[in-house]
Fold this sequence. Notes:
Elements: H1 6-9, H2 12-15, H3 19-34, E1 43-45, H4 47-52, H5 57-69, E2 73-77, E3 80-82, E4 85-87, E5 89-93
Antiparallel strand pairs: 1-5, 2-5, 3-4
Amino acid sequence: xxxxxxxxxxxxxxxxxxxxxxxxxxxxxxxxxxxxxxxxxxxxxxxxxxxxxxxxxxxxxxxxxxxxxxxxxxxxxxxxxxxxxxxxxxxxxxxxxxxxx
Length: 101
């Protein structure tokens, strides 16, 4: 099934996610994979990463809020704009599958 674990896809909350929330979750899962399944809580994803992934800029913040409200992610550090640079936002996946024992 790709990056999405079966137990996640079978959760009722996953089935009601908007398309934008699914795309944000997919991009965060890609970032998680880029980190070798480690560094959860320090997964830096910028708005530009989401846009490059095919999202409309105006849909990103609502999708992140949706995922956070449903318990899929936790924002560990909020990003913001500064002069000529973006400060990264960092997310933590809130999925039992990604918790190491």
